[in-house]
Structure to design on (649 residues):
């Protein structure tokens, strides 16, 4: 007698009543909100009278953005020397800030593209804001290498355009790859962001009361009418863009890391750089997503759309990528020791115990140690604490780039040229100003564009399920 | 109004309702009809019997053109038009311009997806007869509508209306052309 027969004979009566435990997924829209509620909530943000706090924030953001404008004007009028760049630290804060901002952008694309391919439905309520974050971060990032070229009015030389000199860019250089990677990244992110917004712009168009509003949103909505024959092509295009943006986002930070890894400087010349940079970029980006989304959620009372479950998910990804970054720090040290190259070994000992040790330990504590708090549910549920950790992640990731760039360049092969790099006032103001640029753009976005992907949230909400038991 | 109406519109109040209705209309053999929903209803393409979207072809063409443009760019500029020795490296090799070709493949592929969506959908089209429907503004909010065009070979004012009533339409009205 085999086991199955034994069970049928000896089966106690109670087994018939046993049901597997139900493990319902947490709903992505809480409190059983209906579709109209979601429309009112999200479109209401754009339609209401501009709140006072918005004007205060926008005013201060514009004021801070002026720092960048003034800083860059001064730089153009004087020369890149105003950035404190000198031999051997010729990259200084400019490239630190560039990598910092470009990294922040990566979480937006991860949320909208990679999580789309992985069918993570929770991404829908944060992807729009994260994509906007990506675009504005790339804009801030682009400023630095552009002005770092010195004569920014010749920046178009970076592109392969015919000129009277008859020569062309050098395609063997990672810096030229960067030009293609960053401009492709900005363009594709814009297309993805805008295409995702078309159905929601149509919602605002259809609710508009004034003529001008109807006209403006009407133009932007491209005559979208919610036809399923359109949705079919639209969803395919969306999936294709997600499929293209996934290798793109991985390649962009890989190419950024090539700027370092292809150079033969100890501490840079390493094959671990691409994955290490990509993980770091996503880590910093998620820090920024939390920094932006938590206040928005509190101000606009979006708790039913951006639920605790969403915050949990973001925290867990932050924890995972933060740990990957920590692992990369360890492996770098191991390889420096195991590789037995004295210059490489010196570079790393110098990082942790040299003149920039303070920056190194800020980096380690903010990136590796503090995010470990996200292991605890109590921490993830404490929004204020999550926000503080997210800010520290941003700080830590800025210092990571500082350690890699300045810490390595300042102590290069030739001890006679060693120097302790300090930023100038112009450096500091230009960088602080980019936060103003970023905030001003983001505030304009939440004022005029639907900040939650309405159509997508509706589709994943319990009421949007055509096979669901909701109305039966 | 003497002109033939554009079609007959039936409104439904939930996603499951319109999903079931679409299957019935498909099985009744209609061809010129459409479903209007505030969000992409999961499985609606099969329920309507739509074939696979052709946007992918645009992406493929864009991607291939992009890749070869990148390679050609590097070859033409570095090896043909202005050959320049840079650290003793060859004038052209498919390895070093690979990032360029890769990024251009993605860029042009993305253009293919973006413009392919507009081309296959005949958008932008800022006016369409369906916008004359009663309660059209609700479509992008929380209403679900199914429209059978008068141009459909199967269309018959009485029979079509009866079908729409039978499949659970909440409201039925004619859409002016």
């Amino acid at each position: 007698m085999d086991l199955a027969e034994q069970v049928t004979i000896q089966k106690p009566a109670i087994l018939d009543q046993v049901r597997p435990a139900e493990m319902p997924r947490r709903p992505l829209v809480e409190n059983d909100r209906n579709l109209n509620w979601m429309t009112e909530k999200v479109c209401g943000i754009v339609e209401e009278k501009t709140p006072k706090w918005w004007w205060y924030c926008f005013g201060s953001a514009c004021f801070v953005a002026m720092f960048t404008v003034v800083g860059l004007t001064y730089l153009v009028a004087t020369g890149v020397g105003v950035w404190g760049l000198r031999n051997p630290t010729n990259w200084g804060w400019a490239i630190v800030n560039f990598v910092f901002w470009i990294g922040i952008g990566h979480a937006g694309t991860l949320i909208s593209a990679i999580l789309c391919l992985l069918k993570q439905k929770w991404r829908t309520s944060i992807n729009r804001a994260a994509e906007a974050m990506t675009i504005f971060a790339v804009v801030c990032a682009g400023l630095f290498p552009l002005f770092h070229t010195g004569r920014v009015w010749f920046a178009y030389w970076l592109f392969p355009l015919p000129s009277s000199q008859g020569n062309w860019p050098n395609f063997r250089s990672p810096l030229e790859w960067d030009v293609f990677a960053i401009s492709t990244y900005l363009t594709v992110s814009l297309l993805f962001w805008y295409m995702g917004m078309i159905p929601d712009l149509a919602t605002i168009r259809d609710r508009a009361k004034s003529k001008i509003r109807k006209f403006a949103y009407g133009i932007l909505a491209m005559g979208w009418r919610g036809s399923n024959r359109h949705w079919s092509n639209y969803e395919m295009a969306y999936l294709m863009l997600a499929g293209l943006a996934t290798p793109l986002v991985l390649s962009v930070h890989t190419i950024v890391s090539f700027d370092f890894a292809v150079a033969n400087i100890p501490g840079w010349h390493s094959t671990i750089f691409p994955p290490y940079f990509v993980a770091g970029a996503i880590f910093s980006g998620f820090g920024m997503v939390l920094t932006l989304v938590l206040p928005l959620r509190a101000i606009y009372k979006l708790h039913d759309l951006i639920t605790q479950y969403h915050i949990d998910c973001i925290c867990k990804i932050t924890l995972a990528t933060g740990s990957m970054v920590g692992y990369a720090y360890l492996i770098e040290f191991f390889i420096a020791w195991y590789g037995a190259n004295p210059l490489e070994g010196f570079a790393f000992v110098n990082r942790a115990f040299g003149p920039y040790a303070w920056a190194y330990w800020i980096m380690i504590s903010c990136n590796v140690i503090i995010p470990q708090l996200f292991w605890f549910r109590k921490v993830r549920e404490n929004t204020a604490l999550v926000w503080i950790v997210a800010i520290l992640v941003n700080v830590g990731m800025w210092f990571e780039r500082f350690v890699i760039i300045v810490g390595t360049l300042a102590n290069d092969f030739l001890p006679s040229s060693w120097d302790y790099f300090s930023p100038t006032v112009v450096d500091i103001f230009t960088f602080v100003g980019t936060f103003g640029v970023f905030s001003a753009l983001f505030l304009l976005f939440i004022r005029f564009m639907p900040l939650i992907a309405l159509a997508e949230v509706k589709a994943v909400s319990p009421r949007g399920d055509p096979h669901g038991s909701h109305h039966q | 109004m003497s002109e033939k109406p554009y079609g007959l519109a039936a409104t439904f109040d939930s996603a499951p309702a319109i999903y079931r209705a679409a299957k019935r209309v498909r099985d009744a053999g209609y061809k010129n009809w459409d479903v209007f929903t505030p969000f992409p209803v999961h499985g609606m393409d099969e329920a309507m019997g739509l074939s696979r979207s052709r946007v992918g072809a645009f992406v493929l063409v864009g991607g291939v053109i992009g890749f070869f443009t990148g390679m050609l760019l590097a070859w033409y500029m570095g090896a043909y038009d202005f050959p320049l020795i840079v650290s003793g490296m060859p004038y052209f090799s498919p390895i070093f311009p690979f990032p360029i070709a890769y990024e251009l493949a993605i860029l042009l592929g993305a253009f293919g997806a973006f413009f392919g969506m507009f081309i296959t959908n005949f958008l932008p089209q800022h006016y369409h007869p369906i916008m004359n429907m009663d309660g059209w503004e609700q479509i992008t909010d929380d209403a679900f509508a199914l429209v059978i065009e008068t141009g459909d070979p199967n269309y018959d004012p009485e029979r079509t209306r009866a079908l729409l009533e039978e499949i659970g339409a909440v409201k039925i009205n004619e859409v002016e052309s």
In short: The radius of gyration of chain A is 25 Å.
